[in-house]
Amino acid sequence: MKSSVLFYIFTFLFIVKVNSQKKNQDYKLHIHKATSSIIIDGIGDDEAWSMAEEANDFFMVLPMDNRKATEPTTIKMTYDDDNLYLLATFYNATKANYFVESLRRDFSFGKNDNFLLFLDPFNNQTTGFSFGSNAYGAQWDGTMYDGSKIDLNWDSKWISKVTRDDEKWIFEMAVPFKSIRYEEGVKEWGINFSRLDLKSSEKSSWTPIPRQFPTASLAYSGTLVWDAPPPAPGTNFSIIPYVLGDIKQNQEVDGDVKTNGKIGGDVKFSLTSSLNLDLTVNPDFSQVEVDRQVTNLDRFELFFPERRQFFLENGDLFANFGYETIRPFFSRRIGLNVPIQAGARISGNLNDKWRLGVMDMQTAPIEESGQPSQNFAVMSLQRKIFGRSSIGMMFVNKQSINYPQENDSLTDIYSKYNRNLGVEYNLASANNAWNGKAFLLKSFAPTDDDSGFTQGAHLAYTSRKWNLRLQEEWVSNDYSAEVGFVRRRGYKNLSGKAGHLFFPKAGPILSHGPELNGFYYFNEQLKETDHTAYLAYKLDFRKRSSLLFFLSDDYVELLSPFDPSGLGISNLATGTKHNWNSFGWEYLSKPQSLITYALEGRLGGYYQDGSRTSLTGEVGYRFQPYVSLKANLNYNHINLPAPWNTNEFWLIGAEADITLTNKLFFANLLQYNEQSNNFNINSRFQWRYSPASDLFIVYTNNYFIEPYQSRNWGLTLKFTYWLNN
Average pLDDT in the 321-346 region? Predict the structure, then answer.
């Protein structure tokens, strides 16, 4: 605890000295109200555009940030009473073909010629919205958090159009003011524009940004200056109902074919221009993409991301407290294996300094297992300090309703309640070079065995040549977060990394350099229980391919029995010690090719003086822009002494992504997982017939591999429509 206290003190002393002045505040784009109508056709010949101020003369960010961009870009913006408009023109100076992956919405940034708008309505340099498109018109939208991160699971109502020829491509869009959140009466917003041109391997930005940071970094945004405060959006009220019908068969349970009809929906209501109330009744998430299967040879639970829309807007307020391995709230604990009856959420900005998130979800009881009805309540409050830093608090409560009597055996399975209360400080310097975090959490439960503490802190420094980070964590043995994600208890962790880059003046290599990483775990008596340390060397090429080699050292003293095969054959005993070394590599091909691939490998030791060979590969091919094909393979070969002996695990996946237009999608995923004895088929058809309104047809089927026979299958038809005032 002494080391963590010192770390807090150092962090707070440091932040006091950080200059909070915005780096690119002198870069201003003035926006004036349109005096005539605008048609979104990707042509940009409306009279209103001739009167708009132009942003141009972009700066290169990659491969190097010390010159102007070679691919010219011009941006114009205007508005009327209802919409914010943008017109962007991207000239093709290299006279080459455009590169896109498909017409899929929320495309992969690094695999498409694309444009992105970063909008910071509160000018707080930490939160905002992103909109954009690739060169063939596939849309991109997401919410921004932590100063540069984008959550692409958020969808909003807006329209756009792209046209192109050999000389240029043009993107034109209209975003309703009702689709975004902002503070009334404010005339200056943070803003920036990013372009990725794969033909020239060039990434550029309207404002200058150091190459070590993403162009999404709001610390380096410019300023959008309004001629008058944007129109007040007024009361924004939306109803998003759905109608669903499905047919299912589960041959592992009873084999009966069952049909089901279901209705429900969401309601969105703007409490203020920047604070939103969301309600959901009888929600359904059957259209959500399935999780990618993995071969699990780890001792701890795996983390899978949240994909359900209701939990995603302003999701950072709820989901980013703590670390990836220490989360007091993890929304996937709610409603995945039990129906959600209803939920409500208030989230957004109270003003330019305060953010609020409140959520309440109610689940139904499960009579077959005796699980009681449960209520999940979360509150998060965050205040901006020192320019870009923030301090916040969080409270999480899980409460069983109609809880069984004390003499009921179910009390040993379903706890009466579990609560978490914590505070967190997030550090972000004005130039984004220094970042850090410090947090403290306390759990509350009916027994002392689940009522403990956890805390963590880190400090990181990033420059063009250096990447440094120091982090520590402590989770007491009696800390519990039933609505969170905590991989292990009763440990202290100290980790760090140090990386350095060299930049050749010429040749195919853009940068190269070593990186040293170490993760050391101790019990609460400060005795080492395990560690992973590795030395890596990475090469980044000018054509955007990359190559990495590493050497690693692993040590584990088991704190509980563990089967290293993952097959339930036998367990290694608690207290046994294991140490091994490995060699590995990673290669990622350049994205400009129609055929792209990635290769990873690891050779070395394993538990009980055994050995493990792990190979991962992925290859993709695109019939641009309508079809994207991808195949991936993961192979693990493990040699161990008896009784485990030799075991092999194959994980094979294939994807076919068919995008007939930027509104019509047909995604197909096949997964063969030898470890879990499962073969899965998932096909998802989506027609976005109107902005934010969809028709889904989803088919899924799971088979046993050995013996090969059906486990369960289902077919779902779902219709949603966005109604708003």
Answer: 88
Model confidence at 252: pLDDT above 50: yes
Buried b (16+ CB within 10 A) or exposed e, 75-110: bbbbbbeebbbbbbbbebbeeeebbbbbbbbbbebe
- Structural domains of the chain, count: 2
Q: Which residue has the tokens 């950072």?
A: 316
Report the pLDDT value the prediction gives residue 411, as an integer from 0 to 100: 52
Amino acid at 436: G
Query: Can you read off the two tokens belonging to residue 299?
Result: 């001792």
What confidence category does residue 16 fall into, taking pLDDT thresholds of 50, 70 and 90? very low
Sign, CA dihedral 180-194-174-150, equals: negative
Q: Which of 597, 614, 647 is the last residue of a domain?
A: 647
For residue 208, tell me if it sits in a domain: yes
* Cα distance between residue 278 and residue 683, in whole Å: 30
Q: Across residues 542-549, what is the average pLDDT? A: 94
Alpha-carbon radius of gyration of the chain: 26
3-state secondary structure of 411: helix
- CATH number, residue 47: 2.60.40.1190
Q: Which two tokens stand for residue 515?
A: 């990186």
Torsion of CA 203, 207, 213, 215, to 10 degrees: -50
pLDDT tens per residue, range 387-410: 889 999 999 999 988 766 554 555
Token couple for 340: 């959600």
Rounded alpha-carbon distances, angstroms, from residue 395 to 357, 451, 514, 557, 697: 10, 15, 41, 35, 38
Domain residues for the domain of 193 are: 23-226
For the cut 50, the answer to whether the pLDDT of residue 17 exceeds it is no
Residue 532 has pLDDT above 60, yes or no: yes
CA distance 608 to 596: 38
- 106 part of a folded domain: yes
Name which of 683, 686, 684 is nearest 670 in CA terms: 683
Note whether residue 242 is domain-resident. Answer: no
